[in-house]
Design goal:
Layout: H1 2-24, E1 29-31, H2 46-53, E2 57-58, E3 62-65, E4 74-77, H3 79-84, E5 92-94, E6 99-102, E7 107-112, E8 122-128, H4 130-158
Parallel strand pairs: 1-3, 2-8
Antiparallel strand pairs: 3-6, 4-5, 4-7, 7-8
Helix pairs in contact: 1-4
The structure holds copper (II) ion.
Residues 40, 72, 113, 115-116, 121 line the site of copper (II) ion (CU).
């Protein structure tokens, strides 16, 4: 019984910590390239890698690509497509500006302009959800422990 109450308290603590984490580290909107926006960079793709290096991207954040429709595009491509400016294996293409793209999964994502990639209009971002994963795993483990305790308690009642 004491163990059951302790685990219930532990589940509550993890849930509260998780909610706190999500309210304090709220979703961020990142305007790609800052005031310059999504355009042909004057000095190559360094402008976008430098911009990305100053940001922390989390799952749930949004990327906003500011561009004039018809002048540029945003295509999500694998690393090879990013390196070679090749859109064959693109997963998405956004042709209407501004384009808001939600970062829904962890890992590195690559975006290129299908018109001007070779002129350096490309961006690579890396997202981290390590803290999120730790919370989710911990909560799941505690729920499992709690369920096991409930079953044990039921077993005791029958006896
Ligand atoms: Cu372009």
């Amino acid at each position: 019984m004491a163990g059951f109450q302790l685990n219930q308290a532990a589940v509550m603590i993890v849930m509260v910590a998780y909610m706190q984490f999500h309210t304090t580290v709220a979703k961020n909107t990142h305007v790609v390239g800052g005031p310059a926006g999504w355009t042909i960079p004057a000095s190559g793709s360094d402008i976008y890698s430098s911009w990305a290096a100053t940001k922390t991207f989390k799952v749930g954040d949004d990327l906003v690509f500011n561009f004039t429709t018809g002048k540029h595009t945003v295509a999500e491509v694998p690393l090879q497509g990013y390196d070679q400016c090749n859109t064959t294996d693109r997963t998405h293409i956004y042709k209407t500006g501004p384009a808001t793209i939600a970062l829904t999964k962890a890992g590195t994502r690559h975006y290129i302009c299908t018109f001007h990639c070779k002129m350096g209009q490309k961006l690579s971002v890396n997202k981290s959800i390590i803290v999120d994963l730790i919370f989710v795993c911990l909560a799941k483990i505690l729920v499992l422990i709690q369920q096991r305790d409930v079953m044990t308690l039921k077993g005791l009642k029958v006896m």
